[in-house]
Amino acid sequence: MRLGPHPQPLRRFAVRYAHSLAVSGAPPPRVCHAALARKLARLRFHSSNPALTNSIERGKASARPASNFSKRPIITAERLTIGYGETVVLADLDFAVPRAGVFAILGGSGSGKSTVLRHLIGLETPMQGTILIDGKPPVRGSGAPAYGVLFQSGALFGSMTVAENVSLALRKWTRLDAHAIDTIVRSKLRLVGLEGFENHLPAEISGGMKKRAGIARALALDPPLLFLDEPSAGLDPVSSAALDELIRTLNLSLGMTTVIVTHELPSIFSIVDDCILVDRAARGIIARGNPAALRDGSTDTRVHAFFNRQSQAA
Ligand SMILES: Nc1ncnc2c1ncn2[C@@H]1O[C@H](COP(=O)(O)OP(=O)(O)OP(=O)(O)O)[C@@H](O)[C@H]1O
Ligand SMILES: [Mg+2]
To answer: Are residues 36 and 119 in the same domain?
Structure first.
């Protein structure tokens, strides 16, 4: 974080925040967020790191009644047309991502799921239409990343240890000292079950552990929004189920919104609250809602085929 006019008090709060994460293995109680926010407000602190500011705001918001909190969507997309060059991949998308849940972008291979995600995080510019995240266009540019992202390719830097990979954003975008960064990195790795693997190189851990390290890296700046593109692709069913559990736990305990792209039906039915199903031939959304409800209730043969292919065989 870029420290404002009162660096020392802020640093103390940040370290206490990190310490709380490290000691309990979980984020500090919500009241800590609110207290931190109040103290920072008294210090008239304005962070230039939107991720941290959002995190604090989220903490304040989480002290509100859940009903008010969850009703406002965190992302809205209207009349969104996206593609590359002259080629339209998906047109006229309208959808809203509810706050503090797990939202999935589903569809067949090549249907445009990653393309939607790349637009939501501001990597690509829509051909038409709008995307608003908390009322503002996606954050682009060279500042601190406002969202946590695990890309489909998801590569860690092979020459860096797991801890160095996770610490990258903290070193680049905050002025925390080495001890505070180390504390935060350890707490993130504990959160994803990788305590003790700090000094391993990516080549020395399994595929599932790499995914979890990637999630720890995405969580480094406490983002209010986490985007995961096929986090369990290539994992065995047991590792995949463990990863699902981790994603759900992070979502519940940190109160963050998770947007996930996945093909895995067991994951979809176990962790996803709400989804859109995109279709390449239709060039748009062919279904939306809760996946289990769509599986059981949709009369659209394409939707039925998507949600029943493996569950029928199982
Ligand atoms: N950078 C790019 N430039 C041009 N076309 C692209 C680019 N990335 C993807 N596409 C095209 O856009 C379409 C949608 O691709 P996308 O990667 O979004 O699909 P997907 O649903 O994520 O597929 P998968 O499940 O295989 O990951 C495909 O036809 C793909 O070839
Ligand atoms: Mg993809």
So the answer is: no
- Rounded to the nearest angstrom, the distance between the alpha carbon of 122 and the centre of ligand 1 is 16
The CA distances from residue 101 to 26, 121, 187, in Å, are 18, 17, 23
Token representation of residue 46:
């304005």
Contact present, 252 and 26 (Cβ < 8 Å): no
Q: Say what the pTM is.
A: 0.77
CATH of residue 296's domain is 3.40.50.300
**Pocket probe mutation, ligand 1, options 89, 127, 229, max atoms within 8 Å of Cβ:** 89
89 lines ligand 1 (CB under 6 A): yes
pLDDT tens-digit map of 147-190: 899 987 767 999 999 999 999 999 999 999 999 999 999 999 99
In this structure, the strands spanning 257-261 and 225-229 are parallel
Residue that terminates a domain, selected from 50, 67, 84 = 67
| Strand partners for 105 | 261, 276
| Residue 106: domain span | 70-313
Angle, CA 120 vertex, CA 116 and CA 123 arms, to 5°? 95
In single-letter form, the type of residue at position 25 comes to G
Residue of 235, 281, 260 whose CA lies nearest to 108: 281
Q: Which atom of ligand 1 is nearest to the CA of 115?
A: 18
pLDDT tens, residue by residue, 212-265: 999 999 999 989 899 999 988 777 888 888 888 888 888 888 888 999 998 888
